Amino acid sequence: MRFKLEKLVHALVLFSEKGVPDLTKLKAAKLLYFADKEHLLHYGRPILGDIYFCLPYGPVPSFALNEMGDAIEKSEVDDPDRTLFLKYLDIKRGFWNPYPIFKAKQKHDPDVFSQSELEVLDRVTQLYGNHSARQLVELTHSEPTWQIANQERSPDGRALIPYELFFVDAPEDARQMLELFRAECQDSSELDAILNQKTRRPAVNV
Fold first, then answer.
1. In sequence order, what DSSP letters do the residues of 126-159 get, joined into one string?
2. Distance between CA 169 and CA 65 in Å, rounded?
3. pLDDT in tens, 134-191
4. How far apart are CA 40 and CA 116, in angstroms?
5. Which residues pair with 22 in a beta bridge?
6. Closest Cα partner for 107 from 6, 204, 10, 187?
7. Strand, coil or helix: what is 104?
8. Taking 90 as the threshold, does the pLDDT of residue 206 lie above it?
9. Could you tell me how far CA 173 lies from the centroid of its own chain?
10. If 0-12 CB within 10 Å is exposed, 13-18 middle and 19+ buried, where does residue 46 land?
11. Phi and psi of 75, rounded to 5°?
């Protein structure tokens, strides 16, 4: 799996288009977690291809969180990732809300996602979009995905959340997707090993 910045940007645009209120970095991270989890359980792969960590405020997609943070901060140098953010999203700082909010300024590109990913993002928006960030944090704290990983976390630290933890207490039909996920990860790692071997192979003069 590889993290896909375009999916992050267009997921945020989609959330905003569908009227998700107060789309802060924290709230977006929780919505993305629920979307990744649902798609993984039903289709055997997450949407973002991110790496999840257990933090005090619940599970977070680490690359997505860093990219959102970088987009919010004003950079002194050109940043192509931030440029992509600002092409599709405004970052509002409201009077009543001290935290920056993502607002779509043009439509999302549906071609960035598969049909199943669009369906899951839409469903997560309907189920959780009107929850506050605090409510979403509390919901993720009730999930074994976070609770189990949190046992390994130091008070001020973080702990990796393996995707296998997303399947804890999942229905049996969803757990069957775990084997599909493991097989795809194995195929991907084997392909990466082959490609890395090829790139390390010394050139041969002919």
1. HHHTTS-HHHHHHHHHTSHHHHHHHTT--TTS-E
2. 26
3. 999 999 999 999 999 999 999 889 999 999 999 998 888 887 888 888 887 776 554 3
4. 11
5. none
6. 10
7. strand
8. no
9. 23
10. buried
11. -90, 145
Residue 205 vs residues 59, 132, 200, 202: alpha-carbon distances, Å: 51, 63, 16, 10
Residue type, 180: L
Domain borders along the chain are 5-200
**Start-to-end C-alpha separation, the chain:** 37
Enter the tokens of residue 123.
């469903």
Structure token pair of residue 170: 């999942």
**pLDDT tens per residue, range 101-142:** 999 999 999 999 999 999 999 999 999 999 999 999 999 999
Beta bridge partners of 161: 52
Residue 35 burial class via C-beta count within 10 angstroms: exposed 0-12, middle 13-18, buried 19 and up: buried
Confirm if 26 and 39 have CB atoms less than 8 A apart. Answer: no
